[in-house]
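USER:
I would value a second opinion on how I read folds in token form. Give me a protein, with the fold worked out from its sequence. Write it directly below this note and I will take it from there.

ASSISTANT:
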Amino acid sequence: MRNWPHLGFNIDISVQIRSEDEEGMQRLVSYILQCPFSLARMIKVTKDWQR
């Protein structure tokens, strides 16, 4: 990993959620729990699979 060339990452701190903001917390949790890729587009690769 130390030799791997990467551009780093950015963190957006412009939006803050206060501890008493329950609606904001719910939106954040919903966003975090979203699947990062489409389950509908996943395929099962088997020995018989060909393009």
In short: The helical segments are 22-33. Residues 1-29 form one domain. The mean pLDDT is 82. The radius of gyration is 19 Å.
